[in-house]
Amino acid sequence: MSPSLFTLLDDLPGRLCEFAAGSSVFHFGDPIRNIHAVRSGIIHLVRHQDDGSILILQRAGPASILAEASLYSAQYHCDARAETAAVTWAIPRSTLRARLQQDPELAVVWARHLAREVQQARLQAEILFLKTVAARLNAWIAWHGSLPAKGQWSIIAHEIGVSPEALYREMARRRAPNAPD
What we know:
alpha+beta; 4-stranded antiparallel sheet; elongated
């Protein structure tokens, strides 16, 4: 059995970065210098919409690579914000690119990781294509298994591309007696 991607990444030169809740990890347009492996906390990749809303593109938690496709870009195409206090292992982009060329085991494990992320992105796109809040919420629950605590519902709204108010109305409808599922 091959080692985990994070075991292999921990062996690469890098540095620990700590982020307070609410702080920026990087901004749209920043040059890419590091690839961040999340060790603890939650970091969101977000894209700001013209109407002022945000769309969560990635919810990176422990054992996640933040914006892994950025390895192959010159600048970031979104913002990253720590939702909770977070710690990452920041690997210089040039170091990781060089090591992927030199180490076939790391390259295969990295490719598997990217394939899983593509599957997740396609599922996210499928959810966003659904027409109703109810359908989007049902798909999200099927994917994640259950809802988080009530205080975290606004995060789901951003992930499924609806306003928090629309999600709250759907949740209230589901709690109402004799509400259809």
